[in-house]
Amino acid sequence: MIFPRCAARLVFLATLAxxxxxxxxxxxxxxxRQIDDLKDGQRRMLEELExxxxxxxxxxxxxxxxxxxxxxxxxxxVFREPFKxxxxxxxxxxxxxxxxxxxCARYATQVFPRxxxxxxxxGKVKYFFRDLxxxxxxxxxxxxxxxxxAGEQGKFWEAHxxxxxxxxxxDPAALAKLVRDLGLDAAAFNASLEGxxxxxxxxxxxxxxxxxxIQGAPAFLFGTLNAEGQVLSVTKVVxxxxxxxxxxxxxxxxLASSASTPAPEAIRVAxxxxxx
Length: 276
What we know:
43% helix
């Protein structure tokens, strides 16, 4: 696998964790659409695991790092990204995720609720979300648009929770039920969804992940925000869903550090910004 060359002055610590869904160009969309079938679901997970093994072997053989290293911290523009938490929080997480990835769903339903209760709702951490729909999951981009269209009516996170709780494909009846359950204005929602709104935002989100050599989901960028809350100075990157305890250790260290450190200056890095 060939990773793109990044700017020489971008640096951050990358931690590789599995399981993680990886993009697979060879997977056939027609097979993936049968995800309601148990055997097909098992086959898909095995394919993803084989892709992970291949990636790890290649990295070991080449001696290449999971992510590039160089001379200064990576700064990521998070202006106008969907977020949850206190607007003034300095410590932040930026998640890249895929609504059809089983590992993303496991994180979203088992780990994220605890982080949300202990760090986000308490005002300690600001939580950002970016879409990374993988080619192996043909319905993921459509679901990403559903969540963003729901976000126009203040229901992004409610849609986020529902989509990860039930990853079956949407038919018209299921989509109509989601709209009713979330209490959305159906006409406004349908107009936004059918008009293809947010397709470009999602494309930019995917492109930003590719520039940072993030090619699997979920992925997490930890760091601190500048005074305006628009730029994230990244100190650690985790590929794959880890345990709550691992997230807690990283967040507690960042919170302790940020309490005694002046807010970083705003630094805009075009190669790392998206979704503006």
